[in-house]
Amino acid sequence: LDLDSGLLPSGPKDNKYCIQCLECSDRNIYVGTGDSTVQHLTLDQTQAPAQAQAPAQAQARECRTRKLGPSSPIKQLRSVPLLNHLLVLWEQCVTALNMFSLEPVPGLKAIQHSSCMEVCVHSVELITASSRRKLVRIHAVWVDRWEVLREVPLPQDPVSLAVDGSCVCIATVDRYHLVDYHAGSMLELFPHDRSRRQGAMVVPTGGGEFLLDAPGSLGMFVMSTGTCQRPPLPWPREVLAAAVCFPYILALQPRGLSVYSLLDHTLKQTVMIYSSLSLSMWGSEGVLVFTDRQIWALSLVPLQEQVQALVICQRLDEALFLLDGVQSHLPQHSYEELHKDISYLAGVHQFNQRAFDAAKELFIAGDLDPREIISLYPDMRPCLGDRGLVSRRGETTVGQEEVADLARLQREDAAAYRLYLDFLADYLAVARATGRGGPREAVDCVLLRVYAEQGAAGEGESLRQLVASPNACRLDRCVSVLEHHNRYFVLGMLYQSHGNHVKAIKTWVKIADGHFEDPSCPDVYEHIVSTLTTQDIDVVWMFAEWALQKNQEVGVQIFTKHQQENNDQNSFGAEEILKFLKNYPQASLFYLEFLINKEKSETEGYHTDLALAYVNQTLEAFSGQDEPPEAGETRGKLQELLWSSMSYDVPARIMATGLHVERAIVLGRSGDHTQALRVLVHEGREPHAAQAYCHRAAQERSHASGPGDAAGLRRTLLLTLLSMYLCSDALAGEALELLGDNALHFPPGRVLELLPGAWSVGLVCRYLVGSLRETLHRRRMGGLQRALAQAEYLRHKVLWVRTRPFSCCQSLTTTGFIRTAGGQLLHTSCNTQSH
């Protein structure tokens, strides 16, 4: 607060003259004295009270004086500017005077027996308290009359009161009360330790809150609901009066005025004014303190100047705290500019102290242009370009801050400089993600350089994410940086993010071929193939031969995945690809598998080529053996293709080989199952393959004709196979094994006809037990199913009968019914009898 010279020179030398109370209204000041005099003073300034800065601007001119009567002190003055009324509490009466002439207002009779009063400005209502009747009255004030709206009784004599909206806070002899006169409710609060002579303080702070003098030298903040939303304020015991001048609380003592912050409740200033009696608010940002002979005006220093003064004293945290606390009382533009400047200075201070988390939060909160921080790093300035250097230092009006010498730190302490680099990367990443990154070009270039220099695994991933996402990195500034740090894989990603796909792939090809060393991406070849699957056809043809020469199995994916991901749009022709893959047999085989298994192609040439490829590969794998074994992944694929495909044409090629199982499949697909089994039994000598053939042939029949035909074919084939085994004594063991493994599929009567008479029951015991057990099981299951079906049928029949009542009363003995012309149901016999 700024203390101006006294507004009122020393009063008359009459000992009866002394100031008792004050009231302010704009530039008008009203003084109530101890000898029943009301004095009207006018400020000789054009500024509002809050703008008074120099003593010369705070001088007052006396206008009028009115003596109300005998020498008794005036207790209170309250103005009603809307009606030009000045209300005077004198000799237990409230009298209305004109604010400018100080003449009594006609028609407004004095309100008797009033000990204190307050005015509700918003609703133009007067609240008076009466000690004689122990009640509070609410008056509606008009130009020429007032009217009592409500009376609220009190448990004790009232001492002082304050009003905020419809809530009145009243101090009685020993405690405080809250009264809502619209609702007619009263809430008792805590006691106070003030005597009647001292008077208990009740100070409205705005927003439905009151400041009360609680026991223990505490200023208690109480809401109109009776709750507290702020902690109490510790203040001295001898507080004569208090007022709120946001963001401060003023506590008047006999020897001075203490100024406390409303934001953190700390003492901020002490103004020495001796023999002070009380105070009165002077506008919204000032206060008048009076002694018995003089009035002192104290105006609030503009909030912006307070903030700047704290910054100049390097009390940056306090400046930010104060600025955020008074944001609602400042123009938005002024607040934003001050906040940016102070956040920058506070951030730089934390930056110098290596409190990087706090510095980052301040820079982000201050909406700082990242180029200001980038320019602090000498080796990062080239990324900004000639027009990219900006600095808030020297332009701000709130002070300056020296910045750490990072160039010297880089030379002398690499570990410490690394911490500053980590901070730069973290800050720029956050600023970029929050959209406060300023010019993206500078930020992205610097981020790329910092990530490239850091070199750790985590930073390598951050570098990839940067260049993989849409970015504004300039190639002329970033390519040399990545090449210098051997980040060739990321260099390719940078080319790709800028649309230069051919150059990106060429860079990765050099890594795969060993021309560039970059261990950060061990799977660069797979990455190239994956990238080619999304490129145009022309780009794919440029690198197709190189990819297949490296690895045919992986390289062929540039064709297969390309067709899947592009949904046949801008894709290749199968004939064109097969022609190209002619010199790459393994890739050709994989592509044919793709066409048949994935694309479900029914082209005969593809199926034939794939079958031949399987045959050649199988024969090549077992070229040193007389008869190739049954196992083998390629041979399994060949057999599956021969079983499932209907489009191949390779019988001659297969029949000329020693692949007995494959020959049998070809014979079986042509319908010659008996010859197929002979090949497996007599030439291939593969009993297990013969059994598997019988079941697979039946399975294929099931797909084509249904399970009935499949079961019949299985029995026929198994009986044929059994006959072949029984024709040779050397195959008796295979015959017994066949019977034991397939007991449920052999009809017992037919088997007994085929078995040699010399065989004992013990030899075929396994088959007989299994067959009889299966037969018995089927019979029992069939009976159970029939019984369940009959029960279900009867249940439905009962429900149907209940919903379809018959006209006759006979029981249900037959299944024949008729419906008459009238819609009735009858037994057939009943209908005949009725006729």
From TrEMBL:
Residue stretches in coiled coil: none
Domain CNH: 16-286
A GO cellular-component term linked to this record: membrane
Domain of life: Eukaryota
Record GO biological process: autophagy; endosomal vesicle fusion
PANTHER family xrefs: CNH DOMAIN CONTAINING, TRANSFORMING GROWTH FACTOR-BETA RECEPTOR-ASSOCIATED PROTEIN 1-LIKE
Protein name: Si:ch211-266g18.9
Originating organism: Gadus morhua (Atlantic cod)
